[in-house]
Fold:
Amino acid sequence: MRVELKPGVMDAEAESIEKSLALLGIPAVRHVTTARVYDLEFSNVGPAEAKRLADSAVERLLANPVIHHVTVRPLSD
Structure:
């Protein structure tokens, strides 16, 4: 799953990276965003149950629905 900030939410880490790149002589970067990727691997559950468990992890721990946009998808083998 991918957890990223919604548009309009300040991304302090991305701003810091953007400034640091310019200081390093890499000024052509127009925009930086950050996201977190979580790979959850479940054992002994089918795809529907894995999706339910992943959604529960997002709701209970991994994201704040007010500021985060979340994309959950199965990994391809």
Q: What stands out?
A: The CA atoms of residues 8 and 59 lie 21 Å apart. The beta strands are 2-5, 35-37, 68-71.
